[in-house]
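Could you join me in thinking about how sequence relates to backbone shape in a protein? We need material for that, and I hope you will provide a protein of your own picking. Label the sequence line and the structure token line clearly, so we can match residues to local backbone shapes. Would you write everything just below, so we can both look at the same thing?
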Amino acid sequence: MQFELMASMMCADYGNLEKEVKLLEEGGIDSFHIDIMDGRYVPNFAMSLNDLRFIAKATKKPLDVHLMIEHPNNLIRLFLKYLRKGDTVYIHPEAEYHPSATLQSIIHAGMIPGIAINPGTSVETVMEMLRIVKKVLVMSVNPGNAGQMYLPYVGKKITKLLSMKEDMDFEIYWDGACSADKIKEFAPKGVRGFVLGTTLLFGKERTYGETLHNIRTLQF
């Protein structure tokens, strides 16, 4: 069974950020998930443009940039200039008047376009965008803070998306409260990747390499 593991870098040790990147690389992480928060779309400030630039220089692994900001189209070029072709950029459809135009800017820059779907966002409201994007990041918690509890009704939304992904040609990714039992349940069903934060990866006694090995072999 193949699935991708992404490190939620807002949970990393910022006093040793370069070391964290290297240890995660050595441990076998697939990509680095970077949460940009503006304090307006979500009630929190998180990673910045400078954090993105630093991590982009520190690794050759793919970057997964999750823009939790209002009107991302106004700022998208600031972020795109530090990314490489093949990196992923997610936007929240509710945050933009014309989200399809923002997604088109991401495509034109050679990046992978994605949308993030909040727990309260229905699949029906983003249906047409599912034909544009290559990745759908399903939030299993409300966006803005790490360490939240899983919202059980999100599982039904993932089931609905799984039934559509082949026809519309997108992959599904999980973000928020990602525990071992969720990976065991949803990876076999077809969820392509999982963003790992404090629930499984950061702040544990095991090394990143040990933790990632255990996840990939589903040994918990």
Q: What stands out?
A: Strands lie at 4-8, 31-37, 63-68, 88-91, 112-117, 135-139, 171-175, 193-196. The longest strand covers residues 31-37. The chain has a mean pLDDT of 92. The two ends are 16 Å apart (CA to CA).
